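Why does residue order matter? Because the sequence determines the fold. Keep that principle in mind as you read this record.
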Amino acid sequence: MSEIPSLFRIDPADSVATALRDLAAGERALGVTLSAAVPRGHKVALTPVAAGDPVRKFGFPIGRATRAIAPGEHVHTHNVATALAGSGSYSYTPPARAASPAADVPGFLGYRRADGRVGTRNEIWVIPTVGCVGRTAQKLAERANALHAGAVDGVHAFPHPFGCSQLGDDLSATRKLLAALASHPNAGGVLILGLGCENNQLSALLPEVDASANVRSLGAQLAGDEMEEGLALIAELVATASQARRTEVPLSELVLGVKCGGSDGFSGLTANPLVGRMSDAVTAAGGTAILTEIPEIFGAEQLLMARAADQGVFGGIVELVNGFKRYFTDHGEPVSENPSPGNIAGGITTLEEKSLGAVQKAGHAIVTGVLRYGDRVNARGLALLEAPGNDAVSSTALAAAGATAILFTTGRGTPLGFPVPTIKIASNSDLAARKPGWIDFDAGRVLEDGMEPVADALLDAIRAVASGRETASERNGEREIAIWKRGVTV
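Structure:
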């Protein structure tokens, strides 16, 4: 174990370094003397930066100085501003050759489904078509969980407020997302619960669910007793799902969603690069990783475009990024309306800085596909998924796309859980120590132990969770979905 330094410079070209602890005015580190106190996770100037010049971190500009900055100064929102604008123009360059799939990599114990996909859980899901029967779905799941304890890995409901008063593409997106969840390999059986008069009719939703899925449906308005009939249908689902058994499968069968929420100044130093190692390990084994939160790649999109597998994928990334920027500007909002107050308090100054840290979760894998919201992953490698930065919306989209586990990095902490096992990874050891009920893994260890041993430990933890070990959010009963509503409400 090595001593943790006071300041950490990521790239030799950087004009700033990150404080690894609270620093006092007059302290000296990396050849500069601090002119003011600097909180942990915030930045210190290492070189002079003239007004209007770029400030560099991760080897790239994270914004422009709004005034001259001297070495030793605290660098943050008071002297740096974003340089992001609207839609950009990009050119395609073929990427370096992808690495060959790794051989003899340990796998995990998963549930092989009829369509060949592998789940990390064998659960029964109750999915309502509309918010009006959301609480009914919850009551059904609660009663069924008690009745069938031990037969499956759990019975869970996923209520939401939508499915009615929606029109056109907005309604279609809700239907598409719910159908994708109902087709998920972690669900050994699914009860789709409708009301009867909603826009999101069962007759339109059911054809979008995979034919191989173990699904039952119930319209509450037509049922004599929806609780009695619903429990009977769940019993049928359990009878089939309970026959499934975990078997040894290769790591190539894992679909890993990667997400960050409540980021801080350490996220880009520890947790996100660590998760990038996991993305690389899984994709190198022939598996799949999915990156989302498109507004949180603004300013770093070129790093992903440079790894597009071909011209078609490159064009898909450009269209996705520019389309999301237009989504902001069409609503009269700047594309740089990020970071959040919590991010800023943790030391992140601009969206460019946040994005350059966030894209590290994707590692160095070749981007093999671009998915629209509600799409399901259909190719191995790294996929880029359309969804906003909102934690619940983007994590739900990852699950619907087929992620069978999610790696969720955080510097501030959150209790949220989602339909699939969500491994919470703290960017700093203080958070991991303060919130052991929320956090599954301490990435702050990277600063003391180095990246390689911590990466090995996290990959072992992922295998254990994929094989059945509960995450903190699962133990806490934290499971929910959120749908991205973009249309009018009738």
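The chain has a mean pLDDT of 94.
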